[in-house]
UniProtKB/TrEMBL annotation:
Alphabetized GO MF terms: NAD binding; NADP binding; oxidoreductase activity
Family, similarity comment: Belongs to the HIBADH-related family. NP60 subfamily.
Residues annotated as catalytic: K168
TM segment ranges: none
Every 3-hydroxyisobutyrate dehydrogenase-like NAD-binding domain range: 162-281
Species the sequence originates in: Trichoderma arundinaceum
Domain 6-phosphogluconate dehydrogenase NADP-binding: 3-159
Keywords: NAD, Oxidoreductase
Protein name: Gamma hydroxybutyrate dehydrogenase
Coiled coil start-end: none
Keyword Oxidoreductase: yes
Cited Pfam families: NAD_binding_11, NAD_binding_2
Length: 283
């Protein structure tokens, strides 16, 4: 079976590379910057999104947001025509309403639609250790499980379309809040005159330590702002989370603070830097 992959950004590129190790893969991206890397791994470059769909049975999509997806579809009149008999897996972070709309278009065109946003950043993507949050027809999901194994350490069925995204919003609320708290913690230690490397050792040894916190602490200590998940991605997440919370009328005061922080970091010109670069807002 040939797999298609649409979107070769920070997350999409390592995911596509992992799939290339087990399956024939045809890729397309709005930017051709990663094409040579994918070709070296054995991937075929698709001329257009619809050409990828035409040649594949199962297509993964990992674009930035709903606007990017819609732009791709609007710019390729044959995309939905080509989806007949194919399965599209959307891993992009989008609003639930848009996911339902997209699913409806795919189903009307004779295709199958599965939602699978993922938890994890570039390093877990490289290691094939992402957590997939699956939603949609459970029979279809059971059929595609062998093809998502190279990119996930766990793939959990969450319910009908929309459920995967709802799980992603809740996970990211925790993630974004922890990231902001870690940045504040490191800055307080710095401002009090503590040696940051020593304080980093304290955090890495305490019960709150995780694989994630250890990576982000090292980034702060090294002044390494290369993105594993970018500030612009986090800002997009905070907006999605806030909208979801408003819809069900629950209070999320932490995410409102984080939304403002990540907005300010984008305004400061750090939108392409790693999410922990909000540390620079406090220094």
């Amino acid at each position: 079976m040939s797999l298609g992959f649409l979107g070769l950004g920070i997350m999409g590129t390592p995911m596509a590379l992992n799939l290339c190790r087990k399956f024939p893969v045809i890729v397309w991206s709005r930017s051709d910057s990663q094409y040579n890397l994918l070709k070296e791994a054995g991937a075929i470059i698709g001329e257009t999104p619809s050409r990828v769909v035409e040649q594949c049975d199962l297509i993964f999509m990992m674009l930035f947001d709903s606007a990017a997806i819609q732009s791709m579809i609007d710019g390729d009149d044959d995309f939905l025509k080509a989806i007949y008999g194919k399965t599209l897996i959307n891993m992009s972070s989008v609003p639930v309403d848009y996911s339902h709309e997209l699913a409806e278009h795919v189903h009307k065109a004779g295709g199958k639609f599965i939602e699978m946003p993922v938890s994890g950043s570039r390093l877990p993507a490289e290691q094939g250790q992402l957590v997939g949050m699956l939603a949609g027809d459970r029979t279809v999901i059971d059929q595609i499980r062998p093809f998502i194994e190279p990119i996930t350490s766990a793939a959990v069925y969450c319910g009908p379309i929309g459920s995967g995204l709802k799980a992603k919003y809740a996970v990211n609320l925790f993630l974004v809040s922890v990231t902001a708290g870690l940045a504040e913690s490191m800055n307080l230690a710095r401002a009090q005159g503590l040696d940051l490397a020593s304080f980093g050792e304290v955090l890495n040894a305490c019960p709150l330590a995780s694989a994630y916190s250890k990576v982000k602490i090292a980034k702060i200590l090294n002044g390494d702002w290369s993105p594993q998940a970018a500030i612009k991605d986090c800002y997009n997440s905070t907006q999605l989370i806030q909208s979801a919370a408003q819809e069900v009328q629950v209070q999320t005061p932490l995410i409102e603070i984080c939304r403002c922080l990540y907005r300010d970091a984008c305004i400061s010109g750090w939108d392409e830097e790693d999410m922990i670069a909000i540390y620079k807002l406090f220094t």
